[in-house]
């Protein structure tokens, strides 16, 4: 593995040390995260480039494709370097219409964990996030039955660490009464700041916060303030948005996705931008 320096340094998820700049594999599947990629070899090249550049945190889910991204990860990178940690999630499936129906009953969760193990070629999953809510965002409700199922699988030695995705602060607190978590993965970016208090609370506990859709997702971030700051820094707006996230809190881990090696390198360079306190204060106004 190359010794390329990545922005943000590292963070420890339980006993797993990962680069704060990671990679999200969702975009390697076909359109709308369904089916195989148009460029199979290109997808493999992105994964190999990520590892070569020093990334040690790859985020995935067996629902992507479904099964597509996990099989690509296995084909590109197995046997995995000891330093590489693959984080997956369970709790939702894909239907033929491209929806994300919940799959959080005990039987579905057990099946999903075993499918992740098989498709990734692993004996133990380093970190599994329980996906809650729905495609519209977090929804209230108890996590006990689903989370306890994952704790049982953890006790059986199939999972090393646990986290939550698409969760409310109340669900985070409830899960923590059942077993420790090492991360929360929710939607968050410059324009969507609903988790500010949660991020700070998790930082105080040494728990990572992993924003999905850090650049807005299927609708990229658009802001005149962001564009103005980016022009002043002579940088792309999306680069500034990534750099802001890394500087927002030390417990934030980035997993921007791309299907292009060129774009991957651009994201890394962008996240390494140094944004002044005055610019940070201006950016902070966007999502307030």
Features:
13% strand, seven-stranded parallel β-sheet, 9 strands, 288 residues, globular, two-stranded antiparallel sheet, 10 helices, alpha/beta
Q: Enumerate the strands of the largest sheet in spatial order, edge to edge or round the barrel.
A: 3-4-5-6-7-8-9
Query: How many β strands by DSSP?
Result: 9
Query: Which overall shape is indicated by the principal axes computed on the Cα atoms?
Result: globular
Give the structural class. alpha/beta
Helices, by number, come to 10
User: How widely separated are the two ends?
Assistant: 41 Å
Structural Rg: 18 Å
Look at the structure and give the mean pLDDT.
95
Summarize it.
The protein has 288 residues and is α/β, with parallel strands linked by helices.
Descriptive report:
By secondary structure, the chain is an alpha/beta fold. 38% of the residues lie in helices and 13% in strands. It contains ten helices and nine strands. The chain has helices spanning 40-52, 68-77, 106-120, 144-155, 169-176, 196-205, 224-233, 237-248, 261-271, 277-284; strands at 10-13, 16-19, 23-24, 57-59, 85-90, 125-131, 159-165, 183-185, 208-209. The strands form two sheets. A seven-stranded parallel sheet has the order 3-4-5-6-7-8-9, with helices on one face. Helix 4 links the parallel strand 6 (125-131) and strand 7 (159-165). Helix 3 packs across helix 4 and helix 7 (224-233) crosses helix 8 (237-248). The longest helix has 15 residues, at 106-120. It starts with 9 loop residues before the first strand and ends with a helix.
């Amino acid at each position: 593995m190359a010794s390329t320096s990545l922005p943000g340094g590292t963070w420890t998820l339980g006993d797993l040390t990962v680069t704060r700049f990671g990679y999200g594999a969702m975009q390697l599947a076909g359109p709308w995260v369904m089916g195989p990629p148009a460029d199979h070899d290109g997808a493999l090249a992105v994964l190999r480039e990520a590892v070569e550049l020093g990334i040690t945190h790859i985020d995935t889910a067996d629902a992507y494709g479904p099964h597509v991204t996990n099989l690509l990860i296995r084909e590109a990178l197995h046997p995995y370097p000891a330093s590489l940690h693959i984080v997956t999630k369970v709790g939702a499936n894909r239907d033929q219409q491209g929806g994300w129906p919940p799959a959080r009953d005990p039987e579905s969760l057990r099946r999903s964990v075993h499918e992740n193990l098989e498709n990734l070629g692993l004996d133990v999953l380093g970190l599994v996030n329980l996906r809650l809510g729905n495609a519209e965002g977090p929804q209230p409700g108890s996590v006990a039955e689903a989370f306890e199922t994952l704790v049982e699988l953890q006790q059986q030695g199939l999972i090393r660490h646990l986290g939550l995705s698409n969760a409310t602060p109340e669900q985070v607190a409830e899960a923590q009464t059942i077993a420790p978590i090492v991360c929360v993965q929710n939607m968050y970016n410059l324009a969507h700041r609903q988790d500010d208090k949660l991020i700070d609370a998790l930082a105080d506990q040494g728990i990572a916060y992993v924003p999905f859709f850090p650049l807005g997702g299927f609708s990229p971030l658009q802001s005149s303030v962001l564009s103005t700051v980016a022009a002043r820094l002579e940088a792309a707006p999306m680069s500034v948005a990534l750099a802001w996230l890394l500087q927002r809190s030390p417990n934030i881990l980035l997993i921007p996705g791309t299907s292009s090696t060129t774009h991957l390198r651009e994201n890394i360079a962008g996240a390494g931008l140094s944004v002044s306190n005055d610019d940070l204060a201006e950016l902070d106004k966007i999502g307030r």
